[in-house]
Specification:
Chain A: Pfam families: ABC_tran. Chain A: This is Putative multiple sugar transport system ATP-binding protein. Chain A: It comes from Streptomyces pini. The complex is a heterodimer of chains A (522) and B (401). Chain A is of the alpha/beta class and 522 residues long. In chain A, 32% of the residues lie in helices and 25% in strands. Chain A folds into three domains: 174 residues, P-loop containing nucleotide triphosphate hydrolases (Rossmann fold, 3-Layer(aba) Sandwich), CATH 3.40.50.300; 67 residues, no CATH class; 247 residues, Rossmann fold. Chain A is globular and about 70 Å long. The relative contact order of chain A is 0.10. Chain B is mostly helical. Chain B has two domains: 271 residues, Orthogonal Bundle (ABC transporter involved in vitamin B12 uptake, BtuC); 73 residues. In chain B, helix 4 packs antiparallel against helix 14, helix 5 packs antiparallel against helix 6 and helix 8 packs across helix 14. The chains are: A alpha/beta (522), B mainly alpha (401). At the A-B interface, helix 10, helix 11, strand 21 and helix 14 of A face helix 2, helix 9, helix 11, helix 12 and helix 13 of B.
């Protein structure tokens, strides 16, 4: 008599050179929300790929039972036929097809290969009601927001008669409001008897919705903890307790002690942006960044807080070689002198570095090696007469591999094969090797687990301690509060406040971030 | 040093080898396939395939496609395509013919003018692609029509001949004879010896430098084996050529381009930038890669190579003809993909283009020798292209999972 929907027993999966999973157990009870936590590279995604048939039967050891029956999936379709549906972090929707078409993609309502449109739209509308999506089923997916797209994915899963829904970082791309709605929907689905596995780095969310949490570390099951005694009851488990399981140690402080820089030029202005204004690349009427002025001193870590659409990334990209939008006034001074940052090479030459928000799209060449990614921004330094010294290049990569503890078999490994945290370290290494005076870090810890976050904070602190100026853009307020000496806030393209470390709190920042721009965009 | 690295140094030479091979599966796979095809046809043609005269023939027959394929490989690595190279080659061949036949220009001057025309044509297309932002498929499709029409206008629809001896030698000539050896071409043997010396020196120096930087190296036994294999291949090839009329001039030209472009793509900053652009344009741009300039240069380079191929082809025919270069672009693109290029850009090597081109070239030559008609030859070449890329896709999927 088994009281579980899913029972995975001693699953072991090895890749050439790496053992991704060793003897992992996971039991999901009927109708529960089961959270899966662990550092990046702990094996969460691999485990879910085994479960959903991405890694076919035979490519792993161990076995698992779904609703009491042993499973041997050859591909994703096989697992979907049993009602196991996985929704990936990167949504798998076709932007130019309608919501209804997306919901039934691969699962079309057709007779003899001809689609029955009326039926499709009617069923789509039904499913959309179930997930609380109020849109016309014929609307193109490209025309709705990310939050609603996530709902389309869930509707798509429901269309497949899902019994076990797997969500990989479902709220990573959503704002607070959409996240809250999504979490409510997951709770709602549970009440309809659908079990759910949620992979998440956001411990607050886990405490809010999960019944049970399983912690993975280094490809092993560390522990399974009960979050609440019964559905609906208050959470009994603390975030610190989960963190302890994930990192294997108590995290008294999640941030390193700030190290002061006391060089002779401490306190000198490293970066001064004044009157910076940028217009939207297509809609030229709109000011995305409006008259922003800010400063960062040597050895200082300064944060920029703001909600989505506040113009933080746009400000950074525009300052860094005019990589975004249409420039409409403002100056940049680096080290006290006016600097030409009109192109990326010029900005880099003036000692500016920008670590992008989205490392996969803007930060890395995923099909190239670790060493070639590290060297890309500083190739001229590694070259003589236009010829790259490959040996020195590898040596440099090895140096960052050690100093940033990048986990990779060799520096000739494809970056695309590394975990998110290690990819982020590669991007950091790339920019550290340009030896910048000023570093702009855009969401440096997004999608990264707690342990790797701490490592990145340590690196940032070390950079500041060397006298570099660091500007951090982050959506996580505790992160800014823990790291920064000073925090600017932005809202609707304008700077709305500047708060010193001692005076800052989440409440203060949030108030400034939601402040209505008194001079709204003209 | 960590434990991992120490283990990697001594115990797991096999693993290192496997890793190297796996990183370049298609290229190694195609090298093996090329060897198999050679052996197959060598048996099938009763040893005619590797007769010295035929080896010279294969080199000369395929030279212009191989030259195009090297440029095409770089274009594809950068994430573009060039459909105009066949027409451009014809256009340049026609221009050279007009210059030499109608205007009595000396052949070196005509050659220089031709290459310049190629560079200008490449710059023209590069301008639209890099600075205006029109997709390369469209720009070069337009170029294909444009240069084909230009060829017909220049030649007024007729062939133009003959060329001076010197120009013909670009494609048909061999290095001069003279020296002590009776049965072998002396200069060729000398070149062979020099090549062996250079290769061994390079291998040895690379190994020493890797040691200096404390990087992993192949164990001595495997290293020696690798050197022996390379030397054996070079010696066999040189002696084959030396027992006929020696090194064809065009082979020297091709080797020069191969070494030059291979070096640029592997070791020069601009080569790295090409790979970075093809791999992830946005990331490359935000890393300070001057994407427009690099793209522009890639097409200028392609233009010059297309011009050279046009001259080689015209020299081989000893005429400028309006029908020259038809389908060259497709052969060059096929060679690049067989040799390891990827549709999405960012991968491939110049040497790979040569291997891919030779697979097609040896197939052509071998099938002609055994008397398979051109109809079936096309069918077989199509299947080979499909199989080569199909194998790679299948193999990647296997490794990736």
């Amino acid at each position: 008599m088994s009281s579980s929907v899913l029972e995975m027993r001693s699953i072991t999966k090895t890749f050439p050179g790496v053992r991704a999973l060793s003897g992992v157990d996971l039991t999901v009870r009927p109708g529960e929300i089961h959270a899966l936590c662990g550092e990046n590279g702990a094996g969460k995604s691999t485990l879910m790929k085994v479960l959903s048939g991405v890694h076919p039967h035979g490519s792993y050891e161990g076995e698992f039972l779904f609703e009491g029956e042993p499973c041997a999936f050859r591909d994703i379709r096989a697992s979907e036929r049993r009602g196991i549906v996985i929704i990936h972090q990167e949504l798998a929707l076709v932007p130019y097809l309608s919501i209804a078409e997306n919901i039934f993609l691969g699962n079309e309502h057709a007779s003899r290969g001809v689609i029955r449109w009326n039926d499709t739209v009617r069923r789509a509308a039904e499913l959309m009601r179930r997930v609380g999506l109020r849109e016309n089923p014929q609307t193109r997916v490209a025309d709705i927001g990310v939050g609603k797209q996530q709902l389309v994915e869930i509707a798509k899963a429901l269309a497949k008669d899902v019994r076990l829904l797997i969500l990989d970082e479902p709220t990573a791309a959503l704002n607070d409001e959409d996240s809250a709605k999504l979490l409510d929907l997951i709770l709602e689905l549970r009440s309809q008897g659908i079990a759910c596995i949620v992979i998440s780095h956001k411990l607050g969310e886990i405490r809010r919705i999960a019944d049970t949490v399983t912690v993975l570390r280094d490809g092993r099951t560390v522990e399974t903890l009960t979050v609440r005694a019964s559905p609906g009851a208050a959470a009994e488990l603390s975030e610190d307790r989960i963190i302890r399981g994930m990192v294997g140690r108590d995290l008294d402080h999640r941030f390193p002690e700030r190290t002061r820089y006391d060089g002779p030029d401490a306190g000198h202005l490293a970066l001064e942006v004044s009157g910076w204004t940028v217009r939207h690349p297509i809609d030229h009427q709109r000011k995305v960044v409006d008259d922003v002025s800010l400063t960062v001193r040597r050895g200082e870590i300064v944060g920029i807080a703001g909600l989505m659409g506040a113009g933080r990334t746009e400000l950074a990209m525009s300052v860094f070689g005019r990589s975004y939008g249409v420039y409409d006034g403002g100056t940049v001074r680096l080290g006290g002198r006016e600097a030409d940052t009109r192109t990326v090479p010029a900005a880099v030459a003036h000692g500016l570095a920008y670590v992008t928000e989205d490392r996969k799209t803007y930060g890395l060449n995923l099909i190239d090696t670790v060493s070639r990614n590290v060297s890309l921004a500083s190739l001229p330094k590694l070259a003589r007469a236009g010829v790259v010294d490959e040996h020195r290049e590898r040596q440099v990569a090895e140096r960052y591999r050690t100093s940033l503890s990048i986990k990779t078999p060799t520096v000739s490994e494809q970056v695309g094969r590394l975990s998110g945290g290690n990819q982020q370290k590669v991007v950091l290494g790339k920019w550290m090797h340009t030896d910048p005076e000023v570093l702009i870090l855009d969401e440096p810890t997004r999608g990264i687990d707690v342990g790797a976050k701490y490592e990145i904070y340590t690196v940032v602190d070390r950079l500041a301690a060397q006298g570099r100026a660091v500007l951090v853009i982050s959506s996580e307020l505790p992160e800014l509060l823990g790291m920064c000496d000073r925090i600017y806030t932005m809202a609707a393209g304008r700077l709305t406040g500047e708060v010193a470390r001692g005076d800052a709190s989440q409440e203060v920042l949030m108030r400034l971030m939601t402040e209505d721009g008194s001079r709204s965009a003209r | 040093m960590t434990k991992e690295t120490t283990a990697g140094k001594g115990g797991t030479a096999g693993a290192l080898l496997v890793r190297t091979v796996r990183a370049n599966t298609r290229q190694y796979g195609m090298l093996v396939a090329l060897a198999l095809i050679v052996v197959l046809f060598q048996i099938w043609t009763d040893g005619n395939l590797l007769k010295p005269v035929n080896v010279s023939n294969i080199v000369q027959q395929n030279s212009y496609i191989l030259i195009l394929a090297m440029g095409m490989m770089i274009v594809i690595i950068a994430g573009h395509i060039d459909l105009s190279v066949g027409s451009l080659a014809a256009f340049v061949g026609a221009a050279a013919a007009v210059l030499m036949v109608h205007h009595d220009m000396s052949w070196p001057a005509a050659l220089a003018c031709s290459l310049l025309i190629g560079a200008v044509a490449g710059a023209w297309q590069g301008f639209w692609i890099a600075y205006v932002g029109i997709p390369s498929f469209i720009v070069t499709l337009a170029g294909m029509l444009l240069f084909r029409g230009g060829t017909q206008i220049l030649l007024e629809g007729q062939s133009l001949a003959p060329f001076p001896r010197g120009f013909q030698n670009i494609s048909q000539g061999f290095l001069p004879e003279g020296g002590p050896l009776e049965n072998y071409h002396d200069l060729t043997v000398l070149i062979g010896v020099v090549v062996v010396a250079i290769v061994l020196f390079q291998e040895w120096r690379g190994r020493r430098r890797q040691r200096e930087y404390e990087l992993e190296v192949l164990p001595l036994s495997l290293f020696v084996l690798k050197c022996v294999a390379i030397v054996a291949a070079v010696v066999a090839f040189t002696l084959t050529l030396a027992s006929y009329r020696g090194v064809p001039v065009v082979l020297l030209i091709m080797c020069g381009i191969l070494i030059g472009l291979g070096f640029v793509m592997r070791n020069a900053v601009v080569g790295r930038h090409v790979y970075a652009l093809g791999g992830n344009r946005a990331a490359a741009r935000l890393s300070g890669v001057k994407d427009r300039r690099v793209t522009f240069l890639v097409f200028v380079n392609m233009g010059v190579l297309a011009a050279l191929a046009g001259c080689v082809y015209a020299a081989r025919l000893n005429a400028g003809t309006p029908q020259a270069g038809i389908n060259f672009e497709l052969e060059a693109i096929a060679a690049a993909f067989i040799g390891g290029a990827s549709m999405s850009g960012g991968v491939g090597t110049v040497l790979g283009a040569i291997i891919g081109g030779l697979v097609l070239g040896v197939l052509n030559n071998g099938m002609s020798l055994v008397g398979i008609g051109t109809d079936y030859q096309q069918v077989i070449k199509g299947l080979v292209l499909l199989a080569a890329v199909g194998f790679d896709v299948w193999n990647k999927r296997k490794v990736g999972s």
